[in-house]
Amino acid sequence: MNTTKNQFLLIVLSVLFLSSCGDKTKKETSKIKTLPVYKVTLQDTIVSNRFVADVHAKNNVEIHVRIPGLLDKVYVSEGQKVQKGQLLFKISDVELQIQLLKAQAVYKSTMADLRIATVELEQAQTLFNKKVIADKELELSKAKYEAASAKVAHAVAERKAINQQISFTTIRAPFDGTIDRIPFKEGSLVENGSLLTTVSQLDDIYAYFSIPENIYFQMMTDKSLNKPGGDIKLELPNGVVYNQKGELRTADGEIDRQTGSIQYKAKFHNPQGFIKHGTSGKLIISEPKKNVILIPQKAVFSIQDKQFVFLVNKEGIVKMTNISIGSTLDDVFILNKGLKSDDLIVQEGTQSLRDGDKINIQNASL
Fold first, then answer.
1. Which segments constitute the YknX-like C-terminal permuted SH3-like domain (predicted)?
2. Residues 100 and 160 in one domain
């Protein structure tokens, strides 16, 4: 009887032990997380950098009044295309023409006085040579001649100044371009310095933009700034990309210490004058990249300014691996170094992982 009880007790204990071991194994198995992984492959992509840009016309000149007066004629209209030398405005020169007549009369009078002084000097010189007059009389004749000459020079300068003022009343286009707003109408009284209009030469435009120095050095390393035939585009304020490709040019030769950036400009053809001076937009510099490694941003974590991923082997054991990141796209990084093609990395859920942990691999895609 005792033997039977002992056997029964042994069986019960064995069952309890096996059950306990099974629960422990089950709990240990349940601790292994199932996480998505990403398989590293070589891919082709396009890297684009965007910069805020201000558009300037090839030439943009304000036309100001240089002589006050009555605006007699306006020969152009707003938005009109003009050619170099074309007449734009005429300011009344009636008063200046009267002043010119007076100046010409003064000039003729001084010329007459100069001729008389010349004759008198010649006569005095002859008489002095014959010792008929003293040297004082000769010196007096010379002084009269010099005074007459000075008056002629003054009259010439006065006439020239008036002619120059008259030339300021006729205003012409400095180059081929387009007329901007015209604030004054015919008959308006304009003061010296008043803005009559602005002429813009729009066949070519320049988009000025600044590149932060960290991005500048990255782009110089990638040779995307000095690569011939690079893809340079201009995105307009409405989100539409302008249909002309740009040509990159340096605007500044040094980095601005205050902003930590360097200024560049891109030239665009603007044959229809579609883009106006003062337009804002975004300058897009794109460069194709071949055979690069792209990894999801959410797979990367940082420790003390260094970037890491969890590399996964075939057994599901993870290893913390240091990587070097290049450019940043929408939701991926372009890798410089640290991984190779066909490597497996944990795509997400890295927060609770530790080096050497084991995971169940779940396939995932980029």
1. 293-360
2. yes
Cα–Cα dist 252/131, whole Å:
77
Amino acid, res. 67: I
CA-closest candidate to residue 247, choices 262, 261, 265: 265
Place of tokens 């560049």: 264
Q: What is the DSSP letter of 298?
A: G
Q: Mean of the per-residue pLDDT values for the chain? A: 89
CA–CA distance, 107 with 149 (Å, rounded to integer): 11
What's the pLDDT tens digit per position in 151-198?
999 999 999 999 999 999 999 999 999 999 999 999 999 999 999 999
Domain-terminating residue out of 236, 262, 289 = 289
CATH number of the domain bearing residue 216: 2.40.30.170
Query: Which range of residues forms the domain containing residue 340?
Result: 31-45+291-363
Mean pLDDT of 239-244: 94
Q: Which residue, chain included where needed, has tokens 């090839």?
A: 58
Whole-angstrom distance, CA of residue 50 vs CA of residue 233: 10
Q: How many CB atoms lie within 10 A of CB 10?
A: 10
CA distance 335 to 364: 19
Contacts of 94 (CB under 8 A, 6+ apart): none
Q: Which residues of 53-64 are buried (b: 16+ CB within 10 A; e: fewer)?
A: bbbbbbbbeebe
Place 358 in a pLDDT band, splitting at 50, 70 and 90. very high
Spatial neighbors of 65 by CB under 8 A, at least 6 apart, are: 91, 190, 191, 192, 193, 194, 195, 196
Distance CA 267, CA 251 (A): 11
Nearest to 283 by CA among 256, 249, 318, 332: 249
For CA atoms 58, 284, 278, 202, give the dihedral sign. Answer: positive
How far is residue 209's CA from residue 56's CA, in Å, rounded to a whole number?
11
C-alpha pair distances (Å), 43 with each of 295, 324, 327, 340: 11, 17, 14, 12
